[in-house]
Specification:
Helix content: 40-55%
Number of domains: 1
Number of helices: 8
Mean pLDDT: 87
Strand content: 25-35%
CATH class: Alpha Beta
Radius of gyration: 16 Å
CATH architecture: 3-Layer(aba) Sandwich
Number of strands: 7
Largest sheet: 7 strands, mixed
Structural class: alpha+beta
Length: 198
């Protein structure tokens, strides 16, 4: 097992693993090229943090986030809106309603809590479905936290509140605290946070 910081060169492998693990997710429906550019942009951001686990040179898990939640998505859009839109065009032409959902996804305000907004955020964590029950999720999350807590005292994250018991249980087991629930369109989401412990 090799655990390391990910670079923009790993974006294709990240997109491939995301597609494999989250094949029914909205962002996945926008296409593999969209995902590659999306993750590439996050990694290239000054506050971007990306950790991966490799087995035999194959990416099997990753965690990606930012050191500062506030305006992170708006910064991404400012820099890569055209590339992201162009990559998603084939799907958006076939399903125009996805344009509005994409805008809502990037524009949803999860909280007005200033401390949360100024702190770090876990944007995505993923484990190869064929590699479950090997502890990769906990390992990649722990590595992400170790790096984040060098510069931030708190991490937040969001995940589906309903029909997602195993994921919610995973975060609770890793000492995340439920701050609130909110709706993203008709999708109920949970907002968790975790504080640095000396």
């Amino acid at each position: 097992m090799l655990l390391k910081n990910l670079s923009a060169e790993d974006a294709q492998a990240i997109a491939n693993l995301h597609t494999k693990a989250f094949n029914s997710f909205f962002l996945t429906s926008l296409g593999n090229r969209f995902l590659k550019i999306f993750y590439q942009t996050i990694i290239n951001e000054p506050n971007g943090v990306a950790i991966g686990i490799f087995e035999e040179k194959q990416l099997v898990a990753f965690s990606i986030g930012t050191l500062k939640k506030r305006e992170f998505y708006s910064d991404i859009l400012k820099k890569s809106a055209f590339l992201l839109f162009w990559a998603a065009v084939p799907q958006l032409i076939r399903h125009p309603k996805k344009i509005f959902r994409l805008i809502r996804s990037f524009g949803t305000k999860e909280t007005e809590n200033k401390e949360i907004l100024e702190s770090a955020c876990l944007l995505s964590i993923c484990v190869d479905p064929s590699m479950t029950n090997k502890g990769y999720g906990t390992k990649v999350l722990s590595a992400f936290e170790q790096k984040i807590f060098l510069k931030s005292k708190k991490i937040s994250l969001t995940t589906d509140a309903e029909e997602n018991d195993s994921v919610n249980y995973f975060y609770l087991q890793n000492k995340y605290i439920l701050l609130c629930s909110f709706y993203q369109s008709n999708r109920k989401m949970n907002l968790y946070y975790k504080c640095y412990e000396n």
